[in-house]
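tool=predict chain=A
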Amino acid sequence: MLEQPASIDIVSLVKRHGATLAVDHVSLAVKRGEFFSLLGPSGAGKTSVLRMIAGFEIPDEGTIRIDGRSMEAVPPNRRPVNLVFQSYALFPHLTVAENVGFGPKMQGVSRLEIASRIRAALDMVKLSSKEERLPFQLSGGEQQRVALARALVNRPAVLLLDEPLSALDQQLRQEMQVELKSIQERAACTFVCVTHHQEEALTMSDRVAVMHQGRVLQIGRPQDLYETPASAFVARFIGVSNELRGVVHRIQGERAVIRSPGLTGEIQINLSNIHVREGSAVTVMLRPERLRLSGETSGRNGEQSLDGSIEKVLYSGSDRRYLVRLGEGVVWNVRVPNDESGRVGLVQGDAVHVRWQTSDAVVLEE
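tool=predict ok
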């Protein structure tokens, strides 16, 4: 059995690397037993946060508590955590079973107990039949699972993962996203994962913290980050987003009318989640799959629309992407599933109406 999963509380964490402020007053709480990801581009500070949780780096300011216990002055080998490295760091001359049992052996655990732990850990990652193989005889996904088993065999309350799937090809990476979440659920352990891969974070995580330039910009469930981003950076980083910058021309009850330079038409936005005045600068953001293309002049109830022309059609397997020019410097990405593309029947150069439901737009005040 593993230790009971732990909760993690981080308050106003600061880390400087020379003159660089790598982590800028980060505060977050990881719930007991959840899969939590730190997502952001290179240099966002996410790996520094992970290494401070592990005890490999010392915070310049702030506190880290695991299950209410301060980690100040607690060395890495005394913390209830294990770190799975990006490179897996398997011993090439040891078998799968020997790699997995290395930690307990160094801790002086009895042979019978080590054997029991190895069986349980390999069962958990579904590698029981390959315990006598050497790492070079395994696929990339299998090596990754051995690294997980080697970490889990030490019974950590928290498992830390640094870009765990980065060494895998795209298809295997997608398979392992599902498998890693399943392993976390079977292990009933708190997982904290660092990644720069958006799909990876959305697929595996219960919650995600989006980081940029050392700060946490937003924390939430994957669907919340995607559907209601708190900033333009989050919207751009989590998937693809179309943008339209404009100015509030007038306010009509619960809606505002937006005009944008270079566009002849007007659009309306809901004011339920944003407070603006006439003259306010705003950015309207829409996901490609929320848009539809039509050659008809009339739309459905509650729809907004802008006129444009098809600039390019891109085939990407499950769907087609239409690049639609709406005006000077404004090109939107519209995604249409291939089972619908034939019905759309649009080609490069066609004049179109881009339509969407008013409620699908995310509006951010500049």
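Residues 78 and 301 are 62 Å apart (CA to CA). The first helix runs from residue 46 to 54.
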